[in-house]
Amino acid sequence: MSFTTHNLPVPNTVGEKGTHTLAVYDWGNPDAQRIVMCVHGLTRNARDFDFIAGQLAATGRRVLAVSMAGRGESAWLADPMGYNYASYVADCMAVMDNFHIREVEWIGTSMGGIVGMMMAASNPRRIKKLVMNDIGALLSKEALTRIYDYVNTMPKQFESRATADTYLREIFKPWGITDETIWQRFVDTSLITRDGTLRYACDPAIAIPLAVGSKNFTEVTDVSLSPIWKEIQTPTLILRGEESDILSEETVKAMRATNLNAEAISYPNVGHAPALMTDADTKPILNWLDRTLGDLMAVSF
């Protein structure tokens, strides 16, 4: 199943007035009653959801997969301080409002899961169900240090696709992609040509706000999102890679203890984060989304 691409202008939240353009990939029937919104991880883009978006569209849903600013085919921001969570939430609200969408089922990987949490906490009527892919209410210093290190050292360009392939295999080994056809497609959707050079499809300047917040990466600390999570009673499915350094079993247990509408599943032989690019990855998600809200709310632990 194919998609339609929208280049959607949304208001800047930082710096000069005006707009920046987001690439939104629109799958399925535009008149569908059930709508799923997908948001990717920190340096990734909307094309990570091609597989599950096609599956969801085949069930009659409409799927909007968004490349956040500075990622994929979306515009790079003139002021890099706009790469922040408040801006990401505002951008996602603008996307929903542009399409006159009142509520969605949300699938968010890592950063996209945090955006989903923030949306569900501050605008609970806009998020009907929440799927959080390998992200939770506590981010450890060690995991953040690893992520900051690779974000801060992202290459500005690649000499060739083969060079890019080698780099991506090392950085995204925890995703557990073992099928070579899927991997090559992952590489294809991870790259752009900009200013005549082959680049990773992510603005290196996303590292600037992270550096400011951690005093140039010298003062990285654990980050607790528990105050946000405690505001959420939305039915939630928490996905965890069994080898994840971002989301621990203890954090999942603590999250489920404070939200009786939360369930969790784990993926063996995967770290941060499950790729969601095979039937085995996506079937549990589709099954969970197909359950009625009444069934989900009746779950007890």
Helix-and-strand structural type: alpha/beta
Largest sheet: 8 strands, mixed
- The CATH architecture term is 3-Layer(aba) Sandwich
- CA radius of gyration is 18 Å
Instruction: Kindly give the count of domains.
Output: 1
Give me the count of strands: 12
CATH topology group: Rossmann fold
CATH 4th-level superfamily: Alpha/Beta hydrolase fold, catalytic domain
- Output the number of helix runs: 11
Categorize the overall geometry: globular
Your description of this structure?
The protein is an alpha/beta fold. The protein has one domain: Rossmann fold (3-Layer(aba) Sandwich), CATH 3.40.50. Helix content is about 35%, strand content about 20%. The chain has 11 helices and 12 strands. The strands form 3 sheets. It has an 8-stranded mixed β-sheet with strand order 1-2-4-3-5-6-11-12, with helices on both faces. Strands 7-10 form a two-stranded antiparallel ribbon. Helix 3 (about 110-120) links the parallel strand 5 and strand 6. Helix 2 (about 85-100) packs across helix 3 (about 110-120). Mean pLDDT is about 95; it is low at about 295-300.
